Amino acid sequence: MLAAAKEKLIFAPKDDQYNTSALTSIDLSPSPLTQFHAWYTAAESHAIHQPETTTLSTAHLPSGRVSARTVYLKELDARGFVIYSNWDTSRKAADVASNPRAALTFHWREMERQVRVEGITERLTDEESQVYFDTRIRGSRVGAWASRQSVGIEDRDVLERWVKEVEERFKDQEKIPVPPFWGGLRIVPDYVEFWTYTNSLPHSRTSRLHDRFAYTRDSIDSDTWKIQRLSP
After folding, report:
1. Which end of the chain has fewer CB atoms surrounding its CB within 10 Å, N or C?
2. CA 104 vs CA 53, 81, 137, 183: distances in Å
């Protein structure tokens, strides 16, 4: 057994213990979007670095092959969670085209909290995407036009040539239109789970029995959510 353990590149990293107070159902908002906003605001106040950082997971059908990448949450509205990206050549674009379901995972380590989101994706209109696109610095707007995201290239010179072509195209324009292949994707949730990493058993026993609550609803058009405590 010791020999097998020595063959592992990583084996049983040291476990941390957690000190966050217990989470109960009375602490939760009836809506997971409102609850998420409360936790996100707390993360900002806690000086968490870029609390909008999230892992977007998608799966391609019919293969079922799963892929994940780090993106940034840019908007939260009454319908759901919005990110922005390329929806033409990227791996996630192909996944979403074949399978509209996606998931987000937020992890705020310093606050010992995690949020998991699952739902149906929908594209924002060009008009909606333009509003956010206008807030980006010019270089980012040029880059959105120039990049054929996930396409293989011989070297960086190819990318720099594409950038120069876009800069020339828009050299006299302050207002750059949002690319037709780029924009917002909203994940409309039907499942949202809140985790607090806590040692919540009595008598200060170390337990790792975290508090988990799941919000579920029957359809994306329903305003009624069921809240259930889950075993960690």
Report:
1. N
2. 10, 9, 26, 18
